[in-house]
Amino acid sequence: MKWLINFFTSSIGRKLIMSLTGLFLILFLVIHLLGNLQLLVDDGGVSFNAYAYMMTHNPLIKVVAYGNYIFIVLHAVMGLILWAKNRAAKGSTYAVKSNAKVTWASKNMALLGTLILAFIFIHMGDFWWKMKMDVVPYVTIEGMDHQVKDLYSKVSHTFNNPYMVAAYIVGLATLSFHLWHGFQSAFQTLGLNHPKYSPIIGGLGKAYAVIVPLGFAIIPLYHFFVMK
Amino acid sequence: MKLKLKVWRQQNNKDKGGFQTYDVVAEEHMSFLEMMDVLNESLIAKQETPVAFEHDCREGICGSCNMVINGRPHGPNSGTTTCQLHMRFFKDGDTIVVEPWRSRAFPVIKDLVVNRSSFDRIIQAGGYISVNTGGTPDGNSIPIEKDVAGEAMDAATCIGCGACVAACPNGSAMLFTAAKVSHLALMPQGKVESNRRAKNMVATMDKEGFGMCSNIGACEAECPKEISIDHIARLNREYVGSVFGGA
Ligand code: HEM
Ligand code: SF4
Ligand code: FES
Question: B109: helix, coil or strand?
Fold first, then answer.
């Protein structure tokens, strides 16, 4: 057992946790986006509400959801620990800033992560918490023998508020920068590096970092500007 | 050429230290260290204490001429040490800021000289081959593929200067440790002990207070031997393999 504890408290072990939890979150975000794109369907929320009902009642999805919460917490807590340890290891910095070519995102992962965390609190507080606390009204969906929560109207209501739309855009831009560096970094941490495949992973990562946050951003923008 | 030098002066490890400004007249053909010699001679002539800086080979192989020049370890050029940096890369009238390596695991001894014995302890933890490999073997008696030999040789060019640590915002020694691990793990003589080596060298690196790798790549950009962070990926593989695969 001691060897396992030693591993997860070693520098490389800690980074492995960051990488694996980060990759899980990357996978989660794709699924999350695909489901949420139903918010763009102009059917008064029938398909989205049915989907939300399924997501909150399927036992398998519940297990994955709790795994997801644990991984976010683990990733955030470990990320902040790494940040503090790395600051302490550096001690002081230089009088002149280096102009070496490194990405801004790579040097500011903890700042970006903390902003994402703040966004997750706003996001979960507004939707997840209200679903849980049962303050979302119910609607009837044709073909279902019971009423379901009208999360669609809740979302639509939120996205009529320009401040919330702005918060979403900022949150998603932050995510984009985090993943601009994070995606390929996770593979490097795992030691998955290869002259043939690394450039492909790098390209995929940059595409992901742009397309996925953009896909999410379309939802509040569409509700605010088009569906009203 | 007339230069204004802002040099970090610090009596000892307890002293807080600070910048001192000096005027120096240098020639374009001088190396950066020769320019520093000119400064020191003028200080000695004025009965002042010369600037302490490390140097030995002055040809880019010993890894001791360590200083951060205008925010860049070993100065603005890539792939060179400070002793290989020439004054022709600066302009008449330039102000040059010179600082020591900064990282908690490299405490300042005096002025620009830092204590890099933490690197020695990482090497002592496994950066060697324990068996006697004998005299020079016949060429090709142990077949090693050209690409593999080339990669091991690239890693072996690390001179242990510590510019990687100095450049890293996290003060991480991963590039140095990775270069040593890679260099030996790729060779049949070194492969035998590779599990133990990766585990012990990483443990020592952590114990010495170096930071963790965020894959920023500042080390690779500043390494005078242009060692690639691909070696860090290999170290990650070696380490995880040694923990989960080894006994
Ligand atoms: C859904 C959201 C998130 C995703 C998809 C994500 C993904 C990633 C990925 C893939 C990495 C690279 C791991 C590596 O270098 O091996 C990473 C690094 C990091 N993440 Fe996140 N992350 C998210 C949220 C957060 C949050 C909320 C924090 C909280 C503070 C955070 C803090 C960090 C830090 C500090 C690093 C850098 C670790 C290092 O290399 O030293 N992340 N993230
Ligand atoms: S890896 Fe490069 S920068 Fe680091 S000690 Fe070796 S030669 Fe110096
Ligand atoms: S003095 Fe030896 S590398 Fe510069």
Answer: strand
